[in-house]
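Please decode residue identities from the backbone states below.
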């Protein structure tokens, strides 16, 4: 028995129609008789439209999720070096200012280390560019494995890399760079003949060598030049106020 004010939906035996049935109380002419009216409506088209709209919304939600995933992947590609999968200069430019502001707010230092593979042209000339690429990848892998979660490891281009070391002053950064340098120089690379590679490094730090990334980049680059002039396979710190 359908109670007054309630309703139910029925599907016809052939499944082709959906019916909405509602019960309404009717004021009788002669009390205490009780009269009710049943109203039946065919809501098949409305229900089909609702189902179609629901399915369209699900498809739209799924499509938007796919687009967001694709956009994230494309952005990741624009911020990564395709050979080493390290961050690139664009990412460094986007994130350094945030790191600098945090360092100043927390009164902590921040160092940058610019690394350059020694005699990289000679490696390519003697062993071929594929071997040279593997040497770049080996250095990138070492930097990734031995860096902290807060560090930013980038390939600037060619054989140049930069590591941003939040919370480290120049001396602390050099200690870490020297550990990387020794470990990298121990690695043996397979070419026409097995060989070892090395890198030189220039180090600059905030606040002693500047505040902007371009300033630290220039000071680190000058220190790197000094490391090359000193015989390569070594690291040099930029002097404060240089």
């Amino acid at each position: 028995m359908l109670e007054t004010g309630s309703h139910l939906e029925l599907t016809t035996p052939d499944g082709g129609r959906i019916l909405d049935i509602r019960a309404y109380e009717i004021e009788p002419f002669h009390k205490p008789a009780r009269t009710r009216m049943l109203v039946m409506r065919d809501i098949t088209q409305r229900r089909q439209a609702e189902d179609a709209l629901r399915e369209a919304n699900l498809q739209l939600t799924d499509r938007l999720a796919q687009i967001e995933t694709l956009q994230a992947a494309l952005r990741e590609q624009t911020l990564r070096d395709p050979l080493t999968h390290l961050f690139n200069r664009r990412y460094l430019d986007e994130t350094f200012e945030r790191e600098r502001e945090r360092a100043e707010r927390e009164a902590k230092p921040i160092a940058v280390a610019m690394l350059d593979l020694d005699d990289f042209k000679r490696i390519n000339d003697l062993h071929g560019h594929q071997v040279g690429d593997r040497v770049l990848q080996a250095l990138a892998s070492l930097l990734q494995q031995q860096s902290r979660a807060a560090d930013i490891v980038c390939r600037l281009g060619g054989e140049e890399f930069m590591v941003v070391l939040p919370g480290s002053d120049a001396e602390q950064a050099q200690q870490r760079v020297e550990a990387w340098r020794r470990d990298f120089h121990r690695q043996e690379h397979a070419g026409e003949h097995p060989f070892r590679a090395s890198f030189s490094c220039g180090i600059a730090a905030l606040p002693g060598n500047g505040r902007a990334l371009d300033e630290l980049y220039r000071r680190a680059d000058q220190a790197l030049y000094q490391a090359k002039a000193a015989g390569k396979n070594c690291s040099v710190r930029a002097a404060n106020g240089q």
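Observation: The chain has a mean pLDDT of 87.
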